[in-house]
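Q: Got a minute? One more chain.
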Amino acid sequence: MEETDQTENDEDDEDEVFTVELNRGPHGLGMALVDGLRTPLRSSGVYVKSLVPGSPAARCLKLRPGHRILAVNGVSLVGMEYPTGRELIRSAGNGLRLLVASDHSRRASEDTMITKC
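A: Always. Here it is, folded:
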């Protein structure tokens, strides 16, 4: 009987975590946010609901609907109430550094990627 290597399967289920740096445009970042509890995910957190075409968030080419925002400018949003997290993002100033997780993505490399937008 051959044993399956469970470690390989577990790695495929891990979220990809990356950093995105955005500069607020004249109309904001250009992304709508949603409380994960109000989605089919039923998981608390601040998630990207949609991106406005041509906005700083859309031009970045890394953010996608469904991505979870884990931190803004080094402040963790994990465990934070959605309204508090949303307000932290809105009031964070013109330059934002977001730590983002994409669900169940396979990582292209072992390094954390930073994208400046």
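A: The two ends are 52 Å apart (CA to CA).
Q: Perfect, thanks.
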